[in-house]
Amino acid sequence: MTPALDELVAWLGRWSAGRGPMYLLLAARVRQLIDEGLLPPGAPLPPDRRLATALSVGRTTVVAAYDTLRQEGRLVRRQGSGTRVAPAALAPPGPRVVETSNPMFLHLLEPSDDVILLSCAAPPSPPALVAESYARIVLPTDDLGYHPAGLPVLRAAVARRYEARGVPTGPEQILVTTGAQQGIGLLTRLLVAPGDAVLVEAPTYPGALDLFREAAAVPRPVPVGPAGLDVAAAVGVLERHRPALAYVVPHLHNPTGTVLPPLLGRRLVEAAEAYGVPLVEDEVLSELRFDGDAVPPLSSYGREVIGVGSLSKCVWGGLRTGWVRGPAPLIARLARLKALHDLGSDVPGQLVAARLFDSFAPLLRARVAELRAGHDLLRAELARRLPSWECPPAAGGQTLWVRLPYGDGVSFAQLALRHGVAVLPGSTMDALGGSTRMLRLHFLLAPGTLTEAVRRLASAWAEYVPGTGPGPGGTALNAITV
Q1: Quick one: CATH architecture of 128-358?
Q2: Per-residue H/E/C for 247-296
Q3: Residue 131, Cβ neighbours under 10 Å: how many?
Q4: Which pLDDT value is given to residue 479?
Q5: CA distances (Å), origin 38, targets 19, 24, 46, 118
Q6: CA–CA gap between residue 197 and residue 245 (Å, rounded)
Q7: Does CATH number 3.90.1150.10 belong to domain 103-125+363-479?
Q8: In the sheet where 75-78 sits, what is the strand order?
Q9: pLDDT tens digit string along 122-141?
Q10: Residue 143: which residues within 8 A CB-CB, separation 6 or more?
């Protein structure tokens, strides 16, 4: 499979973070991609100028890197036919597993002490109550510890949370997962076959897009505007394509922060039920609203809605406790599938999560207060140092959806990384091929770190030259295939 240009840039990752000439660092990373089989024999590479623009480097850097690999026999460069991986480069035998090229995950896989991560949005440290809860848990003495569906005490606690939000739920409707990511992954494995259509928002949470890509699904993207998902367009996709699954983030949408009005949410649920499409609601951020009453979950409008939640954003990502709420027969099937993969999630963590639910309201209030302060600080710093960037306020959640005045997020993210700050380009979250000028920035770091991050972004922006990338009236980089 030949990657799109922005996907190749994501695979390159932190190629420029080492020591030595830039062209040798780039050549080393491309060599690694060839050796790992991500760039198979015969795969075309982008022209010098396009790759240079996407990486925010001079064309001579790319030319020198390509020539180095050509001399090694790894690349073939011919006038008129471009640059390709040499046929002699051997790919791994057998079918290749689809690895992530998502920069959000790659930044976690390749950590660096001198880079400020504004790319992966999660609380930077656990609240004290987490450590206190671990100290107080009592492990069972007559229990094997394997609970594929989850500990009964935690399933009951999660069910009570839904009951309190006006959604009648029994423990048999809850599956405990190792984070929401596993929940979405299990649903994808169970419901989606290769070639199936999947309704997604554009933009949306990139971790879900990775899972649908792994399943060889065909995304059917629907745009998200200032009022949230375009429900009329979504209903059209449901009617025409009857997707195997519809995945939406209606409340405090990731990444735009929009909130879908209740009437539109009800219409979406009714349409999904009418066309027999499983509707999956990502609820991970839904309780992190700054002001006003919480919007009812989509499951309050229909019994068949599948909810996916987690404590990763409200408490701490390291707790790795999530859940799926849905019809009991579906939960039973998911439990059998989860048993195949891990026999059940960590028992001590589940006991801690159940204890945390007993004092969840003050914990949530404290988290929301921290988020609001970070949100206001980040917007103020961006307005002070980067006034040309469009940065509307968010209704809650953890991130700002920022629009650059020109250029594109992929190439600017490369330059920002060399200035010591990692950001998430909008095009990595958009299956429509849009959001090229957008960045997702989170505001969960300490005040001093957020201030320093914006200083580094401003320094990178002062150097940024979009070249032939998408400036005003330009062509979107992520629409170019190589």
Answers
A1: 3-Layer(aba) Sandwich (3.40)
A2: EECCECCCCCCCECCHHHHHHHHHHHHHCCCCEEEECCCCCCECCCCCCC
A3: 11
A4: 29
A5: 24, 19, 15, 27
A6: 7
A7: yes
A8: 44-45, 82-85, 75-78
A9: 888 899 999 999 999 999 88
A10: 347
